[in-house]
What does this fold into?
Amino acid sequence: MPPLASPPPKSSPRSGRPRPELIFGDLWPYDPAPETADPKLKPRYDLFIDGKFVPARGGKYFDTINPATEKKLAEVALAGPADVDAAYQAARRAADGVWGRMAGRERAKYLFRIARLLQDRAREFAVAETLNGGKPIKESRDFDVPMAAAHFFYHAGWADKLEYVAPGRRVAPLGVVGQVIPWNFPLLMLAWKIAPALAMGNTVVLKPAETTPITALKLAEIFQDAGLPPGVVNLVTGAGATGAAVMAHPIAAKVAFTGSTEVGKIIMRSLAGTDKKMTMELGGKAANIIFDDAPINQAVEGVVNGIFFNQGHVCCAGSRLLVHEPVAEAVIAKLKQRLRVLRVGDPLDKNTDVGAINSREQLNKIRHLVDVGVKEGAELYQAPCPLPARGFFFRPTLLTGVTQSHRVAREEIFGPVLSILTFRTVDEAVEKANNTAFGLSAGVWTDKGSRILKMSTELKAGVVWANTFNKFDPASPFGGYKESGFGREGGRQGILDYAKLV
Amino acid sequence: MPVAPPKAFFRVLDEIGPVDAVGIEERVAKYTTRSIKKEAKVWGLRKAVSMVDLTTLEGKDTPGKIDSLCSKALHPSDDPTVPTVAAVCVYPSMVRRAKSHVADTKVRVASVATAFPSGQLPLKLRLQEVRSAVTDGADEIDMVINRGAFLSGEYNEVRDEISAVVEACGDAALKVILEVSELETYDSIRVASFLAMESIREGDFIKTSTGKTSLNATLGNNQVMLEAIRDFYLDTGTAIGMKPAGGIRAAKQALQFLIAIKETLGDAWLTNERYRFGASALLNDLLRQLAKEKSGAYQAPYYFSDATDSY
Amino acid sequence: MPRLPITKTPKVYVGGAFIRSESARTFPLRDARGAFYANIPQCTRKDLRNAVEAAAKAGPGWARRTAYNRGQILYRLAEMLEARRAEMAEALGVGGIGRAAAVREVSAAVDRLIYYAGWADKYEQVLGNVNPVAAPFFNFTVTEPMGIVGIVAPDPAPLLGLISLVAPVITSGNTTVALASEKAPYPAIVLGEMLATSDLPGGVVNLLTGFRKELVPTFATHTHLRAVSAVASADERKAIQLGAADSVKRTRLLKAEERIDWFSADAQHLYAIRDFVEFKTTWHPIGS
It folds into this structure.
């Protein structure tokens, strides 16, 4: 491919004048607008096994906190191997006795019902999600909860149409599926996992993330209200050891995991020698590529959404920005401006754009990697916004002058940190974008439709967003290439991953 | 666009960069989810009142109507914390009458000129109209661009005409109406914004619409123009003002437009020297909401003078 | 005095060339009666590595071929095999397969290639999707090849088994490094000669002969292999899965201890192609 012409940088200020500045000050501060809906939390949550809330056999509980205040929200039962086994036995009974035999149209009705009941209590769930995870209420309200309901709604409709999932073959449920989900989208990931599994006729043992179990357990209340047969969904809470027990249980015909590549590999190793099917949705280091003909203002908006959405706790976050040299200066200047408009703070405030980092551990990891980036020679820019005194917060951060060999260009930071690199030619952009063991997502910004499709063809990533970023839909398959995992979630491809071909 | 855009269009677009329509819609949708309460709301409502170009542009306008409009402009509310509006906006024939009411006050007289709303008169006559309005006391002139010339790519003609109007304005500020409904695409609105801005002065405005066509000001075209103003300012240092007009009737909408300014251009544009609402019904809704904030009770529309909705 | 026939030196087909093992090692192949037949290259880990390099080099070009072209090339390969049925049947005979069974296996292998040749420009239409997302985007899911796929062929049906594993993988544009049956490697040697005379670009299919014990661990751990398709014993499966974890490799493992009817219609299907494609979803804006 011939190199693109490199005209002089666009939008450089005319010389002889001080650079005009915009003032994003406090002339008109938005008053605090806290969401006041009652999250209806219980002081203590037990395990949800066989349709009932039951204490863990070991009788132990652990605290789950609000990362924005570090205050305890509730205590949650710690499931041990015996509890996990009980959950699997219940799931097995439900799979053999009820759910696996039920007509698809009846299964569909349960899923539709769950979707509706979740919509009914959407605001309550949004507040609970924000309290427990630290994400801004506007995201849990406008994205996580409605999207979770949409996943149940979408998959419900598949339950009685499974003969269309795999042309030429008949499909059957696998049996019991073990699922472990992360803390970044606690309710949504649960919906991604449970809805297709149930639609296909499987039953489920799921472990929510250690730090964010609440919405899963609240959803169990909805399962009860919906009359979902006991054992169809079982929830066991705990940390890594509980997760390992869920993944390793002999009854699990399939395991599905969303989390880090590191843990994904550990799970794959632990399951070597078994016949369990697997779906792995792992880490990413997505390239967001801006060409010089791109709609720059919208691209900047998309880059911001790509990396600061959910504090950057997104496996497909656009954490590497590749900018075409002719517009690099302009794009970086605009990004810095845009960062000054971001509102970081109380996740429950309806005007908060960037909320709390999910845990102290994650905050420390982000700090460490940013330090490494600066030591390796990257230039740091952070939004000058005030941060709350308590809780885990991190300023939206840009690292410029990053090269391919820097750790911040290669490792998943999983926080609000954007590493910025430049490129000259289309080929160089593709090479840099693909020069990673990850392959979950990528973004392309250009006004040229044919270039969008060309880039989409060349990029080794499971999802390519053109002139947008971080878009999700139950009908749209999501999943990675290479070490970002395998299997898809969403769409026809996703549901097939929960089926046995017969 | 009804016909293929001319080559000149792409030359300009290549220089200033395109707009992604989906991205714009997404950006402005976020403004609508901002929650503006309490003090922030009252501040925003008052600010919006101060930005209103209280407008009457009807064939049936009478001197009596102008009297009433000016009185409302000068004294929108008995509440002393409510400011006066920025300007009254009238046809040239009414300028003298309007000026007689608002002379020596903060309220300015704006007049549409240049064969509003179509612009379809020879340039000579349009300029004459501008000069006449200025002579009669207009502080501000709202002109329409030559859309025929714009759409056929005669950009020099568009620029030259704007420059001629600038000259005819003298000390009066100029607002250049792009008539976005006839431009059809966001790219086109961006190109027209730049053409206009290149020919006007600091303190002049670009404006969305005449209010006489189907599509008026929306958050989307407002955003495209705000971003054009921002890019132009950062490039040249010249600060151009913005005036959405038509279709903004509710206080809630006005607050959303203010949020767009705050988050796109920043504090320096949160002033009626750089931002106006071309509106008539909006003022009453702003006043209603202000009264509601003050008393805590929702207000019936007929409590407010000149309300069109008196059911 | 009868003429002494010239025997052929078996070489493996790697990167479009016929090579011996870099180690220069061979192992003797005996025919069904136990008589010496030929020395077969005993490929090593390094040979596997070199074959992966060859497959990597061929990969992008093969993936970029049009689906129609890939289908034609697979068909051409079938033509080559059909034209040399007798020779291939004889090669199968070396491993002890009777004449009639050998001919039947060659025919089935030809038919299998034809089956997948026909899929080349159709599987995308069945596996891909346009997805109705609730936003102004044209959202579509297409398949793409994974890259380099390692193949470990079974001992029973040494030709048909090998082709049944290789054909669906290359149909979608992957390239392969395949280990032939250890017990009956000779058909793979002959197949290499047919591949060379088909229009298949060198490096798309690389065939190794040698010992499973020596090579399976490298198939498991070579991180440039994006997937492994194998007929393997329980121990081998575990080793492959363990190695696969290091680079999140995709695996499709059939059990060597179970009887696989390679002649059955069930041994060929769309989902054998699907197992070695990635799904890519693109969001393209709809705006003006």
Q: What stands out?
A: The CA atoms of residues 38 and 192 of chain A lie 26 Å apart.
